[in-house]
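Hey everyone, long-time lurker, first post.

I ran two proteins through the pipeline my lab uses and got sequence/structure pairs for each. Pasting them in order. The first:
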Amino acid sequence: MAKNPHCEAMSNAPQVSDQDSAARTLDYPFPDIPPGGTTITVAPGVHWLRMPLPFGLDHVNLWVLDDGDGVVIIDSAVKTPDVQALWQQVFDSHIGARPVHKIIITHFHPDHVGLAGWLHEKTGAPLYMSRTEYLMTRMLCLDVRAEPPREVMDFYTSAGWSEGLLSEYRSGGYGNFSKGVAPLPTSYQRLKDNDSVSINGVAWQVIIGAGHSPEHVCLYSSALDVLIAGDQVLPRISSNVSVYATEPDGDPLADWLRSLHKLKSVPDSCLVLPSHNEPFYGLHERLDSLISGHCAKLERLARQLEQPKTAYETLDTLFGRRFDNTMVISMATGESLAHLRFLEGCGLIERRAEGDIDYYQRTDRPALTRQNFIKFSESLL
């Protein structure tokens, strides 16, 4: 798929982030993965299917829920002929003649929303999304240009990219989001925080998160003790949390940490159904691990900024390795900026422009430890 931060880097490719060894201590009750076009039942009336992705992260988990005489589909995978063929197998082998009552999409990234419009056309089922995720999808499908706009190039210039990187990025074009996303219907049903969605006579509470995407939908059923987590909680990898040119002064890491703390309201006993990797038990342990991992990066980054650095120059500090792929570099730069914006908001670093390039340096305030950052993050709620 062509280079475009809204198509691939925002397509839920969290492999840039550090893997957490604590993920190995979680309980994974389903050792088998559903083969393509088939499902595995993970809770009463809740069925797991997995679809391939043409990205570095090679799969996405989707869910089909029984709903009386029909079903509800949660997430859709990216638009490719292979995935459409696998969906047809699911209809033939699992759904059959049953009607699809709802299509629920957790967020706007192509591996989640890609075939939502196609499924709507195929089944006539109404689409359920949060408002921001629906509007982001509609907007990005229309944003097609021959090359990246000036604001995007200025954004990566200010982050300290070399002329070679900028040229390579520019040559990839811009606005290819729609290549992986079928057009959405022109109407939808809005999902809001604390809404209750009835599926198969069971109430599912809507929990809205942010940071990885602006208004991400999670669903929790207390009757089943199941959390459909989307990308808000992944067991083995950490979702990409980035600043983008569309909101260059945003603070998505604060939104992300706030959302992780918010999810602690869900009982730790629940079965977590993530969009990547396998279903697991150990929600609170995983939330604590994700929070601690980001706070460790904040501590490490703040201590390394005694001398001014660009966002690009901090990548080694944050990730401990170099990247040679422009798209992955753009994702890593976005993550770096997310951590830098958070430190700015805490008053621990300051930003100074020299020409077109931004430099970041510690202020004279004492550096915080990881534990201090964790305590501070708790106050965000």
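...and the second, right after it:
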Amino acid sequence: MANIGDVVLIYHEEQPAFFARIEDISADPKRDWYQVRLLVLQIPLTETTWKLREEYINGETFTMSGEVIRMEKVRGVEREASQSVSSDKDFGETHGGNNSKVISILDRKRS
């Protein structure tokens, strides 16, 4: 099930339409329904609330104003074991033959 903070891809008539982040999921007064607050990731940012059943949040199709809609949780790209994330100790070190440097974003934010 998609949860608060997850990014979802919204399909309209089985075509990818837009991404959104789930901001909140709260119980609706109507039994077995939830109010799902979505931040639509487009310009300008838009927030909307949909009333959905749990199975719709889990990816089953539903209709809205006669249109077929589906919500799918976006999973990140898995990295291969050979790729590693550089640590802060690598800050400023040169890697490989291309003279590139690893810059710690955490150090940049502190200054």
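Reply from user beta_strand_b:
Welcome! Quick read of the second one: The first strand starts at residue 7 and ends at 12. The chain has a mean pLDDT of 84.
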